[in-house]
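step=encode ok
step=design start
structure_in=
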């Protein structure tokens, strides 16, 4: 087991060493490309090459060359940050440390500095410059040019401002000094449905009910009258009309037919009238509802509807 463990460790160390040498070789290649571009004052190519070389090899020389390139193309705030980082890497090399400190001192008086403040009454405030969070109340070195500052705090609308800085500018701005509450969306209260108003009787149905019922009542009265006449004609018997003959037989037949017709009309009219009155008084007339129409014709009574 122990020989296998030793072999695995040796393999891992070999692979790590190979990867480190590969990174160093890649860093060296990028560094040389950066030097060539720097000599041609192609800063747009040189600065990214030095940056990639440092990230690949972690060599102080690549970092310092990157700082020099950024300073040369006017991004002196970025250059100052890189020179200060490089100073920590070469502090044990007296000659290089002195050189880097001199570059830092020369830049510190040229770099624009912006301090962002908020009133002390604003709690839990945060601020960002160009999307990067900063420390409130501390001077922030920046590159010359335009910068966007955004400050925000809970329960308060964010405030933004854009500033233009030139070399040597020292500026302080205060944000969130005017309280602008965050707009809150308050849901509208749910209203309880209003109870329906008492329904008014449907005048059309009620009128139709009275008319049809009246026709039925008239039919019932006629039924009674013709029944009495029929009994009188048939001498008090209807089996089969007391043996009436001649004109009495014809009269009995006519009365029998009228009596039957009036009985049907009376029964149907009274029943339909009662239904119409009941519906008319209970349903009520509403906009858009059906309205009853009564059509009375010769020999018939019809009830229709329209919408």
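sequence_out=
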């Amino acid at each position: 087991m122990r020989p296998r463990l030793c072999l695995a460790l040796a393999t891992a160390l070999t692979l790590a060493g190979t990867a480190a040498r590969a990174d160093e070789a890649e860093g060296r290649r990028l560094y040389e490309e950066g030097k060539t571009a720097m000599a041609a004052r192609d800063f747009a190519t040189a600065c990214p090459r030095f940056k990639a070389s440092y990230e690949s090899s972690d060599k102080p020389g690549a970092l310092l060359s990157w700082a020099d390139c950024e300073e040369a193309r006017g991004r002196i705030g970025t250059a100052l940050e890189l020179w200060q980082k490089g100073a920590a890497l070469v502090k044990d090399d007296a000659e290089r440390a002195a050189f880097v400190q001199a570059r830092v001192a020369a830049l510190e008086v040229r770099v624009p500095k912006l301090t962002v403040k908020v009133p002390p009454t604003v709690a839990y405030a945060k601020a960002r410059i160009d999307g990067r969070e900063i420390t409130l109340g501390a001077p922030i070195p920046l590159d010359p040019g335009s910068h966007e500052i955004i400050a925000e705090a809970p329960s308060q609308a964010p405030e933004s401002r854009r500033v233009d800085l030139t070399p040597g500018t020292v500026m302080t701005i205060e944000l969130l000094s005017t309280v602008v509450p965050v707009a809150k969306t308050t849901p509208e209260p749910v209203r309880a449905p209003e109870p329906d108003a008492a329904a008014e009787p449907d005048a059309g149905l009620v009128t139709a009910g009275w008319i049809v019922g009246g026709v039925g009542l008239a039919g019932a009265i006629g039924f009674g009258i013709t029944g009495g006449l029929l009994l009188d004609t048939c001498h008090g018997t209807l089996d089969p009309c007391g043996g009436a003959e001649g004109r009495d037989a014809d009269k009995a037949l006519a009365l029998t037919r009228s009596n039957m017709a009036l009985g049907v009309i009376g029964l149907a009219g009274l029943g339909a009238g009662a239904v119409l009155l009941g519906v008319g008084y209970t349903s009520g007339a509403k906009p858009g509802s059906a309205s009853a129409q009564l059509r009375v014709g010769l020999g018939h009574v019809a009830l229709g509807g329209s919408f």
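step=design ok
step=annotate ok -> Residues 5-17, 285-307 have pLDDT under 50 and may be disordered.
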